Amino acid sequence: MNIQNLSREQLAERLAVLTEEYNSYKEMGLTLDMSRGKPGADQLELTNEMLDPALLGNFKASNGFDVRNYGILDGIPECKKLFADILGVKPENTIVFGNASLTIMYDYIAQCMLFGCGEEPWSKQGAIKFLCPVPGYDRHFSILEHFGIEMINIPTDENGPDMDMIDSLIADEKVKGIICVPMYSNPSGNTYSDETVRRFAALKPAAKDFRVIWDNAYCVHHISDEHDSLMNIFDAAKEYGSEDMFIEVTSTSKITFPGAGVAALAASDANIAAIKSRMTVQTIGYDKINQLRHANYLKDFASVEAHMQRHSDILKPKFSAVLDAFDAKLAGKGIAQWTKPNGGYFISLDVYEGCAKRTVALCKEAGVTLTGAGATFPYGKDPEDKNIRIAPTFPSRDELCKAVEILCLCVEISAIEKILG
Amino acid sequence: MNIQNLSREQLAERLAVLTEEYNSYKEMGLTLDMSRGKPGADQLELTNEMLDPALLGNFKASNGFDVRNYGILDGIPECKKLFADILGVKPENTIVFGNASLTIMYDYIAQCMLFGCGEEPWSKQGAIKFLCPVPGYDRHFSILEHFGIEMINIPTDENGPDMDMIDSLIADEKVKGIICVPMYSNPSGNTYSDETVRRFAALKPAAKDFRVIWDNAYCVHHISDEHDSLMNIFDAAKEYGSEDMFIEVTSTSKITFPGAGVAALAASDANIAAIKSRMTVQTIGYDKINQLRHANYLKDFASVEAHMQRHSDILKPKFSAVLDAFDAKLAGKGIAQWTKPNGGYFISLDVYEGCAKRTVALCKEAGVTLTGAGATFPYGKDPEDKNIRIAPTFPSRDELCKAVEILCLCVEISAIEKILG
After folding, report:
1. Is-above-0.90 flag for pTM?
2. Closest partner residue to B284 among A69, A102, A147, by Cβ?
3. Are residues B283 and A70, on separate chains, in Cβ contact within 8 Å?
4. Which of A17, B47, B110, B187 has the maximum number of C-beta atoms within 10 A of its C-beta?
């Protein structure tokens, strides 16, 4: 039943039925939160063993350093090795930081603003711009907006961003970079194709101080049994000699504990040297006890993958619940499209054009909090007002089922309202 | 025996004796490190119980938040309360950060550079200046130099910096701030007098965006049974309505574990609001597991003081060893002066004018690493080349005794060399 084919009478009738159903939910006084990409309570239990002090042994890192004291700017060797394995780079091309890759990205851009990356400081080059594949991650956009960097939307599909558009825009030397999530993207869950990654590596920006912030937050975060795989950006870049263009970050926030994990950066020799030189002023070093705890608990790549399978076991039914409800309630109605990701933390839902804000507002009234409409676009402005980021991980499966039921109702109600005008 | 009263012959004779002794040390091939303010291995053992996961209970902060998940930007309530008690401010005037107060200071100044604090960004106001009480902390100076902020030396005595000089310099609106360690100063160990603190509170800088970075790193770090006490800067500022001028920081780096502790900031309502607004872009929140661990282990101010007494029991004999050696080997010779701090991590040693570099080099040759001469001054330039920061905490007492023996020799050798010309 494609809703767009219904007569005005049929639509009005259907709206009345849906509204009645909606009102009955509203009367329940629910409070359901599907707004943020937070792991659920059961996921937090998976890593408790990491807090066993026995894992810290005699507190010595593999290089003999006591992790309880000052020292070691760029991370203990075993933790660098762990991230190197996860990201497929050499340990000397990684730096281990504190608890958040967001802070690494903020600091990197702050550094470029104040000191530049090889050229004049960005803050002294007038109005500069960044390319933002959309829909994307609201906190990326907040950083760029905070620094007054103009953001340009780049449409994406299942293969990643529109590379032709990027190729053409980077002829402007005021365009200083791109920020993106190449694997299990936030919010689509899509992974950039090999061709897309190669085209990133082959970019020839006019700006010599052009940087791609490659936020590989979900590199081991599979959900489906079918895993996506992302071509290694530094391997691809080597062919083009463009390694200096890429700053890759990741963290264990959704491997171990969000907020109490360890974050890392991977970059070329030149970028690593520049970043370390700034870090010597900024810190004596990050929390090495937490680094050792992570390295000894997560051990190696195979062990990380086994750990992630336990997350996946919890997340898969939640993602299925949402996708099944979408299939049952929205499919074929001509009013919504959504992604079916193999990993990550989100599903991207496109509702009827012009209806995202209204859908989110209707949900809110019925006690279901969604990520704000527009949040997946720079400046919070979705030009078509249709994208909603669905975050199925935090609620319990029961709560989630109820929330999605209400969401589907609201999607249809707002679409019919819109069509009726 | 004041060396300055000796004849050239007597000096030459004494130099020969000292040099022979020095050479015999040199032949031992020692490697002793008195360069950094690092706790010793025995101090690290004091806090191991904090790593017991039982201290984390059911992982809930006092406001019911699960510390293993995202959320809470400014610190869990019990950790804010702990720092509020330590600093004598209200919990709502504190923010709990990550592992390093150095990073808080770096970020605060970066923020002022890029966004200002109420006025134009500092980076857009041309050449700006900071006042630096000397001798001071090298990492403070590194931050200011990194941001291209001109540093002006302010002499200090046992009561703190020369406040008349500060009063006169702040008439220049290009002077944007002061950075200092008001209690058990690095390196003198002196604590600012009540009169000095009151004069800080009463400062009337021409610059409306003037800030005092009040690095209260050693606020509970007593060594002697006689404790210094520092007047509460915010209490003093209240009288003058100057609360917005002060940014106070501290950390548990030398209470629990250096690098794996928790750092905090205290500031006025207006400054807290401005800092939080920047933080929302920079991070989702800091490591709350470590915050809860600290709050439940350190409990309250009385318990912190009891814990610090255990550090003091270890540090007191080390400080005594240095001071006793200085008394025995250098007193009355007219070639050196030193402080006798009641707390902190350092002793400030002034050697014969023009001899600090030479003394440090002689020590180095004999296997004793000291903080670099000049490090206690902006740009690494001690105008009189006489100050050396002594850090007695890291070596064992035996190593320390040997190192100080050698140091005293080198102080005298370099002084005699200088006098002989």
Report:
1. yes
2. A102
3. no
4. B187
